[in-house]
Specification:
- The protein is built from two helices and nine strands.
- By secondary structure, the chain is mostly beta strands.
- The chain folds into two domains: 1-29; 38-257, Beta Barrel (Porin).
- The chain has an eight-stranded antiparallel beta barrel.
- The N and C termini lie far apart (68 Å).
Length: 258
């Protein structure tokens, strides 16, 4: 009888211990592994852009008259608008430090118009922007990356000048009409920027970013024949103009990490 009671007690203790251990295993919290920033990613972005275009008139060449040198600024055009595009890149994480390389391309609708050369109107409209930049950042709070970036940028811009057309009375804009002359160029520049990125789901991150860019001077020719005719010129007139653009952009976006 004594042996039977001891055996029953042993079985009861063993069963209770096993049940308690199983219950602890079931209720133990799941510890997720740390997020890794290593690897390739691709994503999209939207944002806003604003900046200036500085233009300087170098000379005007009139057929039958010759080149007339000038060399003075004619306008500083403030521009603003929206953008949307995509990016692809690669990150390499060493401890809390993250190194990366990223390429972006975006369509722009950043434009502005300002008076220039007294009676004329100058417009600058940027149509697309491409950048290649290196990124250097640090991980905070496990899933948040704070980074700075720098690199090269290319921007395509159409520059236009609206010219009053000579009317029947012989004066500029006598009939209230006008004509527009345009030139397109792609300028190379540099960029610096900073941002923050957060891993909100497996393989997905969201970011907010600011970039500042300056582009080198680009020379273009504008047809001013309508203006030369209105002033009694003898033939075709071409203005040689230097353009220099500055641009800031703020954007938000998402990335998918492979």
């Amino acid at each position: 009888m004594k042996n039977t009671l001891m055996a029953a007690a042993a079985l009861l203790i063993a069963g209770t211990t096993a049940s308690f251990a199983a219950d602890l295993a079931f209720k133990a919290p799941h510890v997720a592994p740390n997020w890794s920033w290593n690897g390739f990613y691709i994503g999209g972005n939207v944002g806003a852009g604003w900046g200036t275009t500085e233009s300087s008139l170098n000379s005007i060449a009139v057929v039958g008259v010759g080149a007339i040198p000038f060399g003075f600024p004619i306008a500083q055009n403030s521009r603003s608008g929206f953008l949307g595009g995509a990016q692809i890149g690669y990150n390499y994480q060493v401890g809390a430090a993250v190194l990366g390389l990223q390429a972006d391309i975006a369509g722009l609708d950043v434009k502005g118009t300002t008076p220039c050369i007294i009676a004329l109107s100058c417009t600058a409209k940027s149509d697309w922007l491409a950048t290649v930049s290196g990124r250097l950042g640090g991980v905070v709070a496990d899933k948040t990356l704070i980074y700075a970036k720098g690199g090269a940028a290319w921007m395509n811009t159409t520059h236009s000048v609206t010219i009053p057309v000579a009317g029947l009375g012989g004066g500029l804009g006598a009939l209230g009409g006008s004509t527009t002359s345009s030139t397109e160029n792609t300028a190379l520049g540099w960029l610096i920027g900073f941002g923050a990125e957060y891993a909100f789901a497996p393989n997905w991150t969201a970011f907010i970013e600011y970039n500042y860019m300056e582009f080198g001077t680009k020379s273009s020719a504008l047809d001013l024949t309508a203006l030369a005719g209105g002033l009694g010129g003898a033939g075709t007139a071409t203005a040689n103009v230097d353009f220099k653009n500055k641009l800031s952009i703020a954007k938000i976006g998402v990335n998918y990490k492979f």
